[in-house]
Amino acid sequence: GALVYWLEKLAQDEERALRASMKGAPMGAEKLMALHPWTEPTKPRKARELQGRVVPTFKVVGDDEEARRIHDHCADEVTRYRREHRGAEKKWVDPEVDRKTVVYPFGNHLRRKRDHVKVAPPHDDAILLRPAVEPPEDPDDGAPVSEPTGTDGTSASKPTGTQSAAS
Question: Are 106 and 91 in contact (CB under 8 A)?
Fold first, then answer.
């Protein structure tokens, strides 16, 4: 008697909590059985997960005036980068523009290596797109940079017969 009552009450409470946590009306057995097994959701996954929220591209820790200033500067930097990149993409696909004259903003180094595009130097006030090391000078504007050589003229990345692979 009492044990059955409490188990049923526990099950009902769990069902009620589950129903409360579900968003929207349940589909129902008939609609569910009518779906093809490979049917995809109507909205793309990213749109469903984000639900209108903006994906952050950086984070500044702190709540003082300096953190606010850095955050605003980084937000402006991201906006400037996106604007310059969109402009470069428009020129890249324009058939009347010579692709050799298109300059992408700093940060497109994969594109520089893959498509041999020109990449602008970093802005002087850059925080997010500041290079960790000074970028090498490209004398031929966009061609891949040759491998650095050691002091004896051999390639620094490949061990010679006198060097061990561990060193």
Answer: no
